[in-house]
Structure to design on (454 residues):
């Protein structure tokens, strides 16, 4: 009997690295001619912290001798939130809203350039500022842009950095005010500058006019979709696709197997062209799961074992949480995606739609109290469960040039967790299975698609 089917209370997770990276990206260039997307978390500042006073994933910074006030402005460029800043007394220094310094900040590639942009209005002296974090964990000021024009109407400004210095593991950026006056900002962005791309400099473009003070022209071949490695549309007849009985009884004549999936715990059904967990319970199923599903602990993995650098996307509808006598409610109940699953003790997974409305990226290594292994939290963030609502989920995993592994989790197109495994707890994992894990969750999935990445 699989130890995945034994849960005694809350699993003790040994946390080696917790990175609340709610403003982070990793831009990878193994194939440098592909387009690099703008992936900044909470770029529009619409998500506020628990106090409702500060954009999540950002912090209000400053230094020197000055007096400043901050406010959340409803007169936004888009949406309902912009960040307001006023300096009433100024001698030295500045004030600015920066992307989070938690963890490594925004993951970047040394030697590459990045294009920063923001919409703003200001009556003072303002500029982009960029900070770097090195491998020793030290943050330092790196560079700044030329002074921005004073504008009363919403205006987009763009600044392209020089090549990121060697030994940089992350950056943070924002727009600083370094005089008396006001500065209101919204709708930030960061993108990688592709090699072999010709781009003219962008200074500013106003949202109040059909013309702009400068233009941008990019010449590059249009990107083509990455090759599909695996696809599952769940276009099966309604009924059981496979279950744990088939996995643990591989020679049983009455077992129901699927050519693509194995269930080490629980039952997988097809229902109306969707994959479905069934109604979760803690009853060990028979060959057809007619007596129970055991899907309170749902473990679905691919038969294929060689997935490495991939992008995994799917549609997910969470249909409610449960609890049983052997699986009491815990914070990490929810739906999780397995990545590079080597064994029950050796894997990555990305959690979304958790009971506690957080996201997690974790690594499990052999040896320890959690079913023979130890979990290490690589990153965490926030994402609300929306019962009964279809959500688009995507996770990417890729090896970097330095041997580390970059993992990004997206919910509805928004980056909700970003991690880099540099060998936490043991060697980085290079390839393995993919899959879906559920804990005390009823859910449906569709359009499970795996593409080569990056």
């Amino acid at each position: 009997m699989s130890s995945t089917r034994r849960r005694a209370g809350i699993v003790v997770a040994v946390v080696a690295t917790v990175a609340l990276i709610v403003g982070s990206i990793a831009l990878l260039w193994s194939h440098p001619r592909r387009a690099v997307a703008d992936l900044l978390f909470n770029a529009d500042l619409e998500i506020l912290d628990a106090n409702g006073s500060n954009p999540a994933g950002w912090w209000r910074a400053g230094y020197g001798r000055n007096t400043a006030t901050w406010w959340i402005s409803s007169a936004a460029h888009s949406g309902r939130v912009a960040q307001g800043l006023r300096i009433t007394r100024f001698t030295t220094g500045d004030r600015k809203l920066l992307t989070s310094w938690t963890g490594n900040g925004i993951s970047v590639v040394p030697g590459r350039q990045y294009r920063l942009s923001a919409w703003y209005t200001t009556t003072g002296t303002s500029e982009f500022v960029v900070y770097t974090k090195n491998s020793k964990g030290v943050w330092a000021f790196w560079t700044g842009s030329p002074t921005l024009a004073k504008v009363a109407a919403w205006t987009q400004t763009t600044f392209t950095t020089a090549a990121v210095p060697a030994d940089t593991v992350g950056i943070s950026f924002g727009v600083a005010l370094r005089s008396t006056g006001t500065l209101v900002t919204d709708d930030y962005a960061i993108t990688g500058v592709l090699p072999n791309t010709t781009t003219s400099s962008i200074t500013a473009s106003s949202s109040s006019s059909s013309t702009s003070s400068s233009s941008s022209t990019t010449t590059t071949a249009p990107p083509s979709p990455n090759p599909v490695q695996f696809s599952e549309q769940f276009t099966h007849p309604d009924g059981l696709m496979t279950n744990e009985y088939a996995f643990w009884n591989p020679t049983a004549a009455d077992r129901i197997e699927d050519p693509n999936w194995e269930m080490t715990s629980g039952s997988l059904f097809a229902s109306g062209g969707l994959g479905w967990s069934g109604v979760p319970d803690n009853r060990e199923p028979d060959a057809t799961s007619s007596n129970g599903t055991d899907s309170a602990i749902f473990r679905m993995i691919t038969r294929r074992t060689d997935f490495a650098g991939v992008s995994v996307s799917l549609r997910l509808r969470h249909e409610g949480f449960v609890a049983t006598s052997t699986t009491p409610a815990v914070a990490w109940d929810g739906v999780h995606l397995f990545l590079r699953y080597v064994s029950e003790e050796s894997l990555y997974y990305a959690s979304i739609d958790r009971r506690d409305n957080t996201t997690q990226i974790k690594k499990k290594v052999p040896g320890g109290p959690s079913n023979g292994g130890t979990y290490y939290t690589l990153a965490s963030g926030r994402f609300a469960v929306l019962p009964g609502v279809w959500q688009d989920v995507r996770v990417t995993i890729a090896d970097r040039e330095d041997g580390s592994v970059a993992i990004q989790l997206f919910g509805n197109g928004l980056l909700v967790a970003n991690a880099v495994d540099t060998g936490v707890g043991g060697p980085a994992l290079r390839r393995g299975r993919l899959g879906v894990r559920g804990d005390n969750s009823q859910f449906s999935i569709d359009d499970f698609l795996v593409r080569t990445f990056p």
Remarks:
- Residues 58-219 form a domain with the Jelly Rolls fold (CATH 2.60.120.260).
- The chain has a mean pLDDT of 85.
